[in-house]
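**User:** Hello, beginner here. Are you able to go through the protein record under this note? It all follows right here:
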Amino acid sequence: MKNLVFCLFVFCICSVYSQTKYALLIGVGNYPEEGGWPDLSSKNDIDLVQQMLLEQSFDKSRIEILFDKTATVTNVLKSFESLLNKVQKGDIVYIHYSGHGQQIADLDKTDYPKLSFIEKDESDGWDEALALYNAPMEYFNGYNFSEHLIDDQIDYYVSNIDKKIGEKGHLVFVLDACHTGTATRGNEPTKKRGSSDKCSPPNYRPVKSMDNKNQETRNASTGVTSVFSGCKDDEVNFETKVEGKGYGSLTYSIVQAITNLKSEASYSKVFDIVYGNLLIISDGRQNAQSKFDNPDDLFFGGKTVPKPDYFTLYKYDASNKIVYLKAGKMNEISVGDSMSFYPLNSNTKNTIASAKGIVSKLKGTTCEVTLIDFLPVRKISEFASYKAIRHHEVMSGQSLKLAFIKGTSNETIKLVKNIVKDQKNIKIVDEAIDLPNYYIREQSPQNVIIEIPFSGNPLRQMRNLNLTKKSECDTLLKFLKDALKIDYFINLSLTDKLIDLNVKLIKMNDSTLNSYKSKPKYQDLNDIKNLIGFDVELQNLSGDATIFVHAVHISNNKIIQELKLSQRDNNFLEMYAGQKLDTKKYIEPIFLSCTENIDCGFDRIYFFASYEKMDFSVVEELSKSLGGTRGGDDAFAKLISDGSEGINHDIDAESGVRIYKFEFNVTP
C-alpha cells in the first residue's frame, strides 16, 4: 500500500512538472493564381524550422504542419483550438508563419457576424492580417475577409494558450511576413513578403483613435509569450538567398541564431542576433520587431539544446571519398575548413582521427567533405557511427556577385562581362538563382553606376561611367575591386578568445545630446540636422594583458572612416588590465548624422581590440583611394588584400585581434 501511495505521489509530482513541446508551422508558398499573390520560398522555411525543432528535442508527432492548400483560415483556427485543448501548465509552444501579410480594414463584428473573435480596435483604423492560401490581394465585391487570418483572431488564441500554460510555460510566435509588427512578405531586388496595398471595401475610411481596445491585461498565471516579427507594420519583409536557395529573412535568421546557441540565452539576446542579421540582409531596410513579456527570460525556459561540438554524417560516397554532413553555412562552416572523423562515442582528445577531409561544397544546411583518406567502414551503413569535428577553420576569400537591373541593354551587358571576364572572384549572377552583392544600373545607353542592393545608393557616391571609353571601363573595374576589399573588411571575423573587451554603445537621448551641443568643444554639432550620438564604455577584461582599441565607422554607402576614440588626439586607446574607460573622462563620444538620403540607412561601428597597436593605413586606403595599394606590410593589411583577391586564410591568420560589431539605422 505504501509503495502504491509513493508511486501515485511520484506520478503527481511528474505530472505537475512535466513539460511537453508543441509546434504549429503554417506556410503558404504557392498561392492560387486568382488571388494575385506572387509565390514565395515558404516550403524551404518550413523544412528549416522543422529541422531546427527536431534538433531542439521537439517530438515529430507534436509538430503540426499546415502548408499551401491546407493553410486556410478554417484549418488554422481548428489547429489553434486543438492546441489550446492539448497544452498543459509548463508546456512549451512554438508557432511559425511564413507567407504574405497585409493590412486590411479594421472590421466591426456587427458588419461581419460570421467572423469569430474580431474587434474594431485599431488606433490607425487598419488590422494586420496573414494572407492564407485563399486570401485575395485585392478586395472584390462581396468579399467577407474570411480568408485573411486577422490579428484579433490570432490574439484570442495566443492569449488563451498563454494563460493555460501558466507562468512556467513558454510560447514563441514567429511571423515571417510583411505588416506583422503588431499582429502577433515583386522584386526589389528579391521577393518581398506582402503587399503595400491594403485590402478594404472601396468606401472604407479608416477611423483613427488613440484608444486601442486590444490591450490585454495579463495576470500572474500567464506564461511567457515572445513574439518575433520580420518588420514594422509599415515595412516590407524580404526573402534572402543562401547558396542559391531562398528563405524568409526572419526564418533564416532566427533558426541560425537558435542553432548556434552554445549556452542558455535570453529572448532579448536571441532578438539582438536576429535584429542585426536582418539589418545586414536588407541593408538597413528591415527592422525586426519583438514583443516580450520578460526580455530577460531564457529562450524556451532554458530548455534549448546547445550547439554540439561535432557534426553528424548523413551520407557516404565511398567510391569518390565524399562525406555529407548535416551542417552548412547555417552552422558557420566555410569551404576550406578541415574536418576530422572519430567514432561517435570516442573521446577526441585521446583518440587518433579515423580520417580527415576538407569542406569542398557548401549549402545552407549541408556540406560535402572530400576525404584525404578512406573512412574505415566495412559496411556502407556504418558511416553513421562517426562524427566530424572541425580542427581547422578558414576565412573564405571574398567573391563579388554582380547582377544587372532589369531592362539593361544587351550592349551594356556585353561590355561589363568583357570587363570582368578575367576576374576569378567577380561573378555575373542571375538574381533569380543567387542574391547579388551589387547591381549594375544603366542610367542611359552604356552609362552605368554600381548600385548597392535595397538602398539603391551608388557605391561610395560614384558618378556615371561611360563604358564606350576605355579609361571609364578601367575605373569601373577599380570600383569593383574596391568593393571586394571593403566587403572583405566588413565580413572579417577575428575572435582571439584570449582578448576580452567589454564594449557598450549607449545611444544618447535628446537631453544628453543637447548637453554636448552646449559645450564649446562641440558647438559645431548645433548646425547638424538628424544627429545621433553614442556614449562609449569600455573595460579590458583580458587577464593581465594590455590591449589597444581602435574603432571604425562604415556608412550605408560603404565609406569607411577610422574614428577618433581618445581625448588625447589619438585614434586609439591603450588600456591596461582591468581598466574601465568611458566618455566622461578618456573616450570621445561618437556622433553620426545623415543630411541626405544617401547618408541615411544601415551603418556599422566596429571596435578592434589587439595586443599591439594596429596599422590602420589599410583602412584609410579603403576610405580614400580607388583600387589603391595593398596598404602597409603588416599581417592585417596583407589579410585584407589577399582576402579581397579571393585567397582563403587561416581563421587565426591575424591572432591577437578581436572585433566587436554594432549595427543600427541612422534615419532622418
Notes: The longest strand covers residues 531-540. The chain is about 20% helix and 25% strand.
